[in-house]
Specification:
two-stranded antiparallel sheet, mainly beta, 79 residues, four-stranded antiparallel beta sheet
Length: 79
Amino acid sequence: MLLPFVGFSGNIYNKIKQYKEEVPNTDGNVFNGTLGAEITTKDFIFGANYTLPISHNLFGGNVTPKQAVSIYLNFNLNN
């Protein structure tokens, strides 16, 4: 069975604390869009997805997230 999917995800990061002090410009956020598909069989789940940053503000604008591709293979334990 082929199962396509579309999704969104996001992360919010707090400021980094070092020696009980907050390091400036280390907080931020990122919002991603994801597109992918899974193929399921009786014993395995094979999938791939593509993630694209939609909006971001990381480390005061000094860090830019990149696109990502993931490929995975899982063994189905529900047999």
